[in-house]
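In response to a reviewer's request, we include the raw inputs and outputs for one of the modeled complexes. The two entities were modeled together in a single run.
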Amino acid sequence: MKTHPMKLVTVICETLAREHLTRLLAAVGAHGYTLFPVEGDGSQGQRPGDIAEFGNIQLEVVVQPAIAEQLLARLHGEFFPRFAMIAYTSDIQVLRPDKF
Amino acid sequence: MPPDLLHAIQANLLSPAVLFFVLGVIAALVKSDLKFPEALYVTLTIYLLTAIGFKGGVAISEAGLGTVWLPALAALALGAAIPLWTYPVLRFAGKFPAVDAAAVAAHYGSVSAVTFIAATNFLNQVNEPFENYATAFLAVMESPAIVVGILLGKRAASGSSSIWGDSTRRVLHEAAFGRSVLLLVGALIIGALCGKRGLTMTEGFFVTPFQGVLALFLLEMGMVAARRLGDLKKVGIFLLAFGVLAPLLHGCIGVALGHWAGLSLGGAMLFGVLAASASYIAAPAAMRLSLPEANPTLYLTSALAITFPFNITVGIPVYFALARWWNS
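The model returned the following structure tokens for the whole complex.
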């Protein structure tokens, strides 16, 4: 089956950044995302996740490479100084490129 | 220390709710693996807010809106006014950046429902009657300070980019329809519509298990607060002192204002507790949305690790003693 290259952008951040983040996704033209609550530990302290507002979320979004770049640039410039957050991209293959 | 106050502090510290709070603190300090699932935390919150809202509504139906509106309006005004003096104190005496001062000020003007519930619990324990409709004051005091604090902070924060720009509308939506305001106001209205008959029907669920649920919830809150204790050294001596002195001052103002608004001893004390308490769920969420530049360690640590434990253990009996002194 023929597959097409695409970028998976993963963002792990404090729950309270959620609204800003989903609005940024819409602004750069992502067509959807997947989000789930996670817990962990990092440079800005433990996030045990028993109170949703104090926990972390992980957000995954599949986008075209150009959009991924734009997304990361804006995360770096506007979000990293304000929120507890990490973000990274991975190369993935999808079956239906028009969906993204 | 007067013997009355000492007795009140002792009565408070030996209540199941406060002892479970202490157990929670210990559990976090010794790094026990005890942990509440998030769903349980949310369930307990919904239960507590619904139960006090409903009981408050029934009380409104008995007292009549004519009795409630004046103190409720005073509560709303006090909530909105508290940031107006805490902001300059933090900004100029504490030398905090403007957004941080505004964010902390919003937290201290807003309220903690659990502190309020623990105070009603205390009043029941010392057999001091109070106006059950005081829950209405809790409902109207949560949001005004958050809105005022955000306006203060927005004025100060320059160069906000478009992403943060349009959050004011969302904050107003959250202030009116956020889950705690919605549940409290909704349950108040339902309680007021049902009246005494409704309370009799739901007593087995909303009244009888209440103490136990509160104890369980405070166990969790003890853990949540104690996990923040490590941040105390990051916030500085000024905020440590502020976290204790601000509630004491606001408690005095609240008791006086409650008394002026015609409330009983117990009601004036609850008014003081509301003024003294600081929000740690609604306000932080609103600040992250609207003033993301403000440092969350400052407001979360002071509201959750300093003011909340102080109010639960020592503050509540102190405000009670104040109200009694004022009444005599």
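As requested, we also summarize the result in words. Residues 3-27+35-327 of chain B form a domain with the Na+/H+ antiporter like fold fold (CATH 1.20.1530.20). Chain B is about 80% helix and 0% strand.
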